[in-house]
Task: structure prediction
Amino acid sequence: KIIEQKIPNVQFLISHAPNLKDEVFEKYLPSDSNYKVIKGDNRRMLACSDFLILASGTVALEAALYETPMLIAYRGPWFFYLVAMLVMCTKYVSLPNVIADKFIFPELLQKDCNEKEIAKQAIGILEDETKYNQIKEALQKHVEDWVNEKKTKY
Result:
């Protein structure tokens, strides 16, 4: 709602994971909602999106290949988060940031992963053309580097 109020022409797409039943979406999304649920066409959704809000995982790497600016928003059980922080050898969570060894785009974790902060970060990127283009250019550069590294390595 916060993003919709600030950017009236925004359109939201939600990926329908194959392991979730339709009833989950029917329960949480009213029929008159402006949110569109896309089932079974993740790649096209990633390719046509101007911006993504993701829960990390391999989808962040896939989105990076499409060079789509994004932010990572993830909140899980505190115990597992603390264990992960103890054993991780990196300060990044999303694969593109881990591989680049820098923050290409923001990661909102645990207490920072809330409606207000997600909206603030998303609006900040979408309304700031310079910031948006910096993320897009960094993704383009790193994807190109990853592809070229693979070609020269083997």
Q: What stands out?
A: The CA atoms of residues 7 and 51 lie 13 Å apart. The chain has a mean pLDDT of 88. The first helix runs from residue 2 to 6. The helical segments are 2-6, 22-28, 42-48, 58-65, 78-87, 95-100, 115-127, 129-153.
